[in-house]
Write a structure and sequence with these properties.
Elements (H helix, E strand, L loop, with lengths): L20 E6 L7 H4 L4 E6 L2 H12 L14 E6 L2
Length: about 80
């Protein structure tokens, strides 16, 4: 499988790996971004191991330095596992 942009989220060497562990990203009820993204917006990210998922989850949960001091991220993160 060819990948056009190397910065895409998918690592070409792991593209065909079984991915059972995931993270669901949603917005809390009443979030103003729902006016832009829609009430049912979500993003699902899948990982080949529980450890990789947990590491990504921890990174996503940190308030990174790109936010202004007055900004507060409102994403809701949920760990997933499929059988």
């Amino acid at each position: 499988m060819d990948f056009h942009h190397p910065h895409n989220l998918v690592d070409p060497t792991a593209a065909t790996a079984d991915r059972r562990w995931g993270i669901r990203v949603t917005l809390p009820p009443g979030d103003t971004m729902q006016k832009v993204l829609g009430d049912d917006w979500e993003r699902l990210l899948w990982y080949p191991s529980k450890a990789a998922r947990d590491q990504a989850f921890d990174r996503m949960a940190i308030r990174h330095g790109y936010y202004r001091a007055s900004d507060t991220p409102t994403q809701v993160l949920e760990k997933l596992e499929r059988g």
